[in-house]
Amino acid sequence: MGSSVEVTFYEIHGKKCYDLLSQRKVVHLRSDQNEVVHIRGARSLVCLSPSDVVNFPPKTSQQTSGTKDEPAAETIEYTDYGTMVTAVHEAMKIRSSEVTERNPISSRSHAVCIIKLLSPPLSVSKATASSNHSDADLGRNDLNGLTYYGKLTMVDLAGSERNYETTKMTAAQHRESADINFALMALKDCFRAYFARSLLPKTILKTKTPGGTDLPQTLSSSSTSDSCPTRAPYRASPLTRVLRECFVDSPNHTDRRHHTTIITTLSPNPSDVQHSLNSLEHVVLMNPSLQSQVHEVIVEVPLLEGFLSGIPISAWTAEQVLFWLSTTNNGRFSQLILPPGLDGNGLMKLNMVSLSALCEGTLRAARQDDEGSAWVVQGVASDDVSAGARHNYLGRALWAALRREQQLQRLGEQSAKATV
Amino acid sequence: MENPLNVVNPEGIQWSWVDFSMGEDVRTESRLQQDETWRNAVSDGRSHVSHREYSNIHCREFINAIDDYKTVKFLLSAYSKPTNVLSRLNIELMTQIVDFALPGQAPLVAANEMIKNAKADAVLALTSDIALQESVNALSNLNSFRITARCRPLFGYEKDGGAYYTVDVLLSSSEVVTHNGKLARGGRWLTMSHKTFPLNKVWRSDATNSDVCQYEVEPLLSRVREGHSSSLLCFGQTGTVFDTLECSNIPSNYTNFSSS
To answer: How is residue B8 annotated by DSSP?
Structure first.
């Protein structure tokens, strides 16, 4: 047997919502007295199952008239299955073309697709008896005699920030990404609150339900709620308002709990690894019990590639010393001019003090005649350090770089031995 | 829909789920353009290398580091099994062996030990609080909130560009390991960070769309059919595109079911 379905499809872009089933018309999020969120002005498609078409023939006068500011509450259209699928695909196309023309890099909106099941009242009476709370969450109770009894919300969350974009982004794009980050943060907060509440002892939970509050227990619960908030702050962003049902249920009510699944897609490409990490970190934050198990291991890997890797520093010729100076530390020492003919052996014999003296300070005789000022200026400009540390700074850095090079070579020899 | 990328997996099977007409392929041009502008940009004395560039330049070191990490992990898994001969070694000896076999990887042993101890501590802390333990157990068995991850395959043009897998999916422990490397300021060191994320369920890149749908979406749908409500959130950085595609596929799958 089949059942009738109703489909709504819209996207959240910043603080505004657009209906994807009616050419991106602006629609509004409205809450009713039960805090249930409705989409005002959205077009929804209803596809009736064969049996329902006979028993509950569609009426045509479903559209209510609206004003300019407040559009019609909703437009309900009866279609057949094929038309509905095409309409959904059309809506996907609207979204994707929008993505490519405005910003080729990433999708900047959250798409929300809601599928509701409709059923004749007789067959659904058992289901509603077991779960009358979900009835309230579905918004309207019936449509032309058919009762709503199940709802699937699918959300395609906007992508996280990309590195390329950060260099050339307009103000509007910055605002967009701020909105997206804000929505994701709000989502995370809500899920964390949901979990914090589920970890509370059940006695405290009971006092949280409206009505049964007596003083001593409320006091104890309020002291607990300082550390773990028990109410999901879902009003923070439109996205969390739409997903409100995910957080309001207590996870201790096993039978009628709202089920949520998050699918994170990762890209294994090395240039995307930071974004994969970012997504994972966002998603893991939503569940504190998973978050506590995240661990990171850091390993330092020497890069032995290059011109001088095989030759020990003490065997370097004067040219090789100059080459090393010009390339090491991303060219930091490239403008340093050493005494002519200083080879690797000579360089290694100098201690930190004499190296510093060579570059900076009073022993200018050790250097060539006309290079001094340029080098000192460069040194001060590129390394903004305090006046005290500036003294001997370059010599010390050079010395450290030399020792690091030595260490690298030692490691390289080790690995060479190991491979032999 | 056409399949513009013509993505084929190692076994030669056409991917069923990558036939989208938007995605990374549109971006390659703008990427190349940006690379070009960056290359020609006048910078000060130092050379600036983006992550994308150095992950390409030092790809051999990256791949080696990832391989080394896996080898050490393998050794350590043997070490932590009480039945294995390796478990008779003490930690210092183990560190020395790892350091001899794979120079520079010794910190992994210490880190592994620390993680193990932290886990043991957590278990101890839990057992002291029975109420907390109960609710944590309930949470871990809870399938009302699931966080899953899925790794997409590398596309053909990415492989041609020398891309390699930086995300590992461990099915047995349902963990995702990301390997991220940072080039030190000196340009001679690579700081590899291997971060492990335990999740409720992970999918390797050879999982098909229907696999994921069956395992993750079908339970939600049956829940809806019972008269409850459920949500599916697709979260993916750009270039993964699966999210968008899936959203468009499920309604058709579902309505197929309902109207049949």
So the answer is: B
Test the A interface: residue of B237, B242, B254 with most A CBs within 10 Å: B237
DSSP H/E element including B182: strand B175-183
Alpha-carbon gap: A145 to the closest alpha carbon of chain B (Å):
17
User: Which residues are paired to B236 by β-bridges?
Assistant: A265
Could you give the C-alpha distances from A53 to A83, A97, B96, B256, in angstroms and in order?
Answer: 16, 35, 76, 17
The tokens for B159 are 């492989």
Radius of gyration of chain A (CA): 33
> Which chain A residues are within 8 Å of B119, Cβ to Cβ?
293
- The answer to whether A287 and B145 are in contact (CB under 8 A) is yes
pLDDT in tens, B55-84: 777 777 788 888 888 888 888 888 877 787
Question: Which residues in chain A have their CB less than 8 angstroms from residue B27's CB?
Answer: 104-105
Q: In the numeric block, which tokens belong to residue B172? A: 């047995």
| The two structure tokens encoding residue B32 | 């190349």
What letter represents residue B1's amino acid? M
Instruction: List all residues 6 or more positions away from B44 whose beta carbon is below 8 Å from its beta carbon.
Output: A382
- Using the beta-carbon criterion (under 8 Å), do A124 and B227 form an inter-chain contact? yes
Tokens of B177: 């390991």
Amino acid at the residue A220: S
Q: Least CA distance to A378: which residue of chain B?
A: B45
Q: How far apart are CA B120 and CA B88, in angstroms?
A: 19
Q: Rounded to the nearest 10 degrees, what angle do helices B59-79 and B107-128 cross at?
A: 50
Is the ipTM above a cut-off of 0.85? no
Taking the Cβ of residue B190 and every Cβ of chain A, the question of whether any pair is shorter than 8 Å is answered with: yes
pTM of the model: 0.67
Q: Which residues pair with A117 in a beta bridge?
A: A5, A150
Between residues B250 and A49, which one has the greater pLDDT?
A49
Q: Per the CB < 8 Å rule, is B236 touching A266?
A: yes
The ranges of chain A with pLDDT < 70 are 1-2, 57-74, 96-108, 121-145, 159-170, 173, 198-230, 249-256, 302-310, 326-338, 357-394, 412, 414-420
Give the SS3 label for residue A109.
coil
What pLDDT shows up at residue A111? 83
- Asked if A414's CB is within 8 angstroms of B103's CB, the reply is yes
Given a contact cutoff of 8 angstroms between Cβ atoms, the answer to whether B228 and A131 are in contact is yes
Closest residue to A137, CB basis, from B144, B229, B243: B229
- B103–A415 CB contact, under 8 Å: yes
Question: Crossing angle, helix B59-79 and helix B91-101, to 10 degrees?
Answer: 150
Q: Per the structure block, which two tokens stand in for A250?
A: 């207590």
